[in-house]
Every structure is written in structure tokens, then in C-alpha cells.
């Protein structure tokens, strides 16, 4: 993909493209080449965008629900029409393999936007409780700060329900993968979204992100990213006591019970660990197995890992592309090295670049065996294709290990029966659990326990995040 600096290096504010000072390079992680630049926005650009969103709010909030829903569906159709372009942009800016970019990176935002639009009519916008009429109203101006790993889905998961709710939005996309946000801005205009309802300001987290979180005219901040950055957003936003929704990191456990189908558990488990190159907050990075089955499972996982070809993300056969940046590559390699130093056994992979890939942000997909719960690789989010296989003595210990991190975003259980799997899933302190490979549901609530965040996205619960509740006594 070729990207023009001239056509992509602008903010989208109040329905127009606006130039800005400074320049942040957008680097293709597969080649190390700069493919575009975006302006380095800060407090001034954020203020302009927030004021525009505030001015547009009353009109958009008063727009009939059916019209707001129709606009969200029109945006979805715009995404569909430009799906090939969007997928190519995501592949170029953060290295997601083209097959995954087309099916998931574009497919998920289409599913989530359709889902929230479909539930709007049956949603309880008003209800009677005794002599009170309870009314749900838009929270106001939303500041959305999104990450680089799913640069369209993470945006649409916030923007679609916010628009249905009647809110206006200022988006600060990740400076690592910001180009897709510009395409979305064009799509919203073509869908007829009024000026000021959706705005995009580029920049870094410390500059543009913090300015957005603390702005007094922003009523809510919806943030997806790392735990340290989420803490900072919460601190900055506290000055104006605004609502904050945080979707943060994870260290998800996949508990394989002694009566599970091991072939299914290992195949799906490895797939959900290596998904998007492991750059997924819900990735099942800890594979918990009975001690007696540990070596067998490791052997199966190593055999399965050979199918995960690493290489050029534009090649249809590639399953793992580069990490999103060289900085991310260095982070993943650091954790792999640390795992070796702390005594984990390398079953496959390890430090260093894959053979034949001397250029680009590539790492070797890695599987560690015999990992102890106290090891760094078992506790901290690596965000790369690194699996830790961890033995346990019995079911109680498996649950204890699964719950023994500061995170609680997702997880899985594989069992001989759905009933047994469900019982274990209920004991896991995490926001989502898949039993025996249960399919992703775009209408189910998504979010975490503990330091994985606050609030929920997707479906009815995601819509409720963008609403205030008023009681009127009659």
C-alpha cells in the first residue's frame, strides 16, 4: 500500500480537514519505511474539536432515534464499501496480515455497529418505577482514546453506541496506527453525519490524550490501552469528575481440564494466543494443563505452532506479521529473554528474529513450558506471540492460578462437558470466558475485572455506558 502524506496528515474537526503543526511519522512495521505523517495535535486542537462537539451536541441529541440509527447503519455500509482499502491501510500501518485484516479487523466493526443499531428500538429508553419516569439521555461530549492493535474496531466499538445514544465525539486515535481514522472520518461525512458530531485529533497520549481527558467540556472519556496509561487518564479526568470507561490489559488463562478434548483445546488455545500476532488484550497467553498431561500438551502445541507462518503481512499465507512497531518488537523480545533467564523452558521460538527476516519488526512465535505462576511471563502482559504452558495439580489450583494476576479480562475453559466447563468458568474472576471454544458474541458485554478496567463495551451494556439516567417524579 502507498499512502500520501498530503492526503492523510490532517485533523478532522467540525466537518473539515484542518492542518496542524508538527509531524508524527507513520511507519510500516514490515519494512521500517515511513508511509505517512500525521500532525502532532495538542491542547489547542483538542479545544477546537471539543468546542465543535459541544456546539453540535444539542442538535444531534434531539435528532430522532431512527435517524441516528440510520446514520450508524450508513457508516457501516461505508465501511463495507471501502473494506479492501481499510484492510490495506491496517496492514500497512500496524502489520496485521491481510487475511486477518479483511476478515476480522474490518469484519468486527461491521458486526458491532450492526448489533448496537439493531437493539436500539427495543432498548428501554424510558421506564416507569412507581410514580417515577426513568429517562435515559446521552451523556454529552465523549472523548475517545483508542489503541493501535485494532485501529478500526476499537474506534467503532465506542463511536457507534455513542452516536446511537445521541452523544458527540472527539477521537484521539493511536499515533502508531492513525490512518484508518481518516478513512472513517470521510465515511461519516458521506453518511450524512452533521459537522462537529465526530471529530479526529491526532497526537500523542501525553499531549493530545491528556488534553482531551481533562477538558472541562468533555463529559466522558472512553479509553482503551495499557494499564499505566489508563491510570493516567483516570487521574487527569478526576479533576472534572467526569465519567471514565477503561478497557485495559489482560493475561488471560485457558484452563484445560483432565477430560477435555486436547486436540481442540490446543488448536483453539494457540490460535487465541497468537491472534493478531498476540497483540490482542484478550489473548489466551497462559495455557493451564494437568501435570500428567503437560508434556503431551507442549508437544501438541509445538506441532501446531508450525502452521503459524511469519512473514510479509501482504502475503495471503502469512498468519503472523510484524509487531506493530520496532518498539513493540523490543518489548516482546525483552519478555522472551526474561522468561529464559527466570528458568522457563523454551519449547519453540526464543529471542532473535525469525530466519530470513532481518528487516522489519518481526519476532519468533514462542512457547514456554513448565512456567511457574510467579514468573514475569506468567504475570505481565507481553502483547506478542508468546504462550506460557503452566502445569497444575487439581481443579482448585487451576482456578487459583488463573485468578492470580492483577488482570481479569478474558479466559477459557475446555472440559469434557459443557456443564463442568461452566462451573469452572463461574469461578474465574474475569469479564469473559469461552467454554469449549464458544464463539465471539458482538452483543455480549465486553470488559474486565480488577486492573483490566471499568465499564463495558458492545451490545446493550456498551450503549448504557454513554447514557445518563434521570428520574422524573409524577
Automatic annotation (TrEMBL):
InterPro entries according to UniProt: Ald_DH/histidinol_DH (IPR016161), Ald_DH_C (IPR016163), Ald_DH_CS_CYS (IPR016160), Ald_DH_CS_GLU (IPR029510), Ald_DH_N (IPR016162), Aldehyde_DH_dom (IPR015590)
Q: According to its UniProt record, which residues of this chain constitute the active site?
A: 247
One Pfam family in the UniProt entry: Aldedh
**Keyword annotations for this protein?**
Oxidoreductase
EC number(s)? 1.2.1.3
Which CDD domains has this protein been placed in? Answer: ALDH_CddD_SSP0762 (cd07138)
Keyword Metal-binding on entry: no
What is the reaction catalyzed? an aldehyde + NAD(+) + H2O = a carboxylate + NADH + 2 H(+)
* Main EC class the enzyme belongs to: oxidoreductase
Q: Look up the domain of life of the source.
A: Bacteria
Q: Does the keyword Oxidoreductase apply?
A: yes
* Record domain Aldehyde dehydrogenase: where: 22-472
Q: Which family does it belong to?
A: Belongs to the aldehyde dehydrogenase family.
What is the name listed in the Swiss-Prot or TrEMBL entry for this protein?
aldehyde dehydrogenase (NAD(+))
What organism is recorded for this protein? Actinomycetospora lemnae
